[in-house]
Amino acid sequence: MPNYVVLEVVLDERFVGKGSKNLPELEVIINEQCAKGYRLHTITTANGGSKGLSLGGRLMVTLVFESI
Q1: For position 28, what pLDDT does the model report?
Q2: Torsion of CA 18, 22, 26, 31, to 10 degrees
Q3: In what order do the strands lie in the sheet with 58-67?
Q4: What is the pLDDT of residues 21-49, one digit of tens each?
Q5: Nearest-angstrom CA–CA distance, 11 and 18
Q6: How far is CA 13 from CA 25, 30, 38, 50, 53, in A?
Q7: In angstroms, rounded to a whole number, what is the distance separating the alpha carbons of residues 65 and 47?
């Protein structure tokens, strides 16, 4: 029976259209779980709210890891 770990990460997007500066943060989280014997099963994102037209908002990322 597989075991799962579910993590939710809130990423802060500073400026719209500038690209994510948060990819290294996600990479660290994914690699930490892989080192513990899990593989990424599912990743989903949802808008966590906006700070206005010129500023980015929060991005909610849900990561589901499955034991191998």
Answers
A1: 93
A2: 100
A3: 4-12, 58-67, 38-47
A4: 678 888 999 999 999 999 999 999 988 76
A5: 14
A6: 13, 19, 28, 9, 12
A7: 21
Res. 3: pLDDT tops 50: yes
Tell me if the pTM is above 0.85: no
What are 30's two structure tokens? 């994914």
The per-residue pLDDT of the chain, averaged, comes to: 82
Helices (H), 10-63: 23-35
- Distances in Å between the Cα of 41 and the Cα atoms of 12, 18, 44, 46, 65 are 23, 28, 10, 17, 5
Q: Which residue, among 8, 22, 9, 7, has the nearest Cα to 56 in the 3D structure?
A: 22
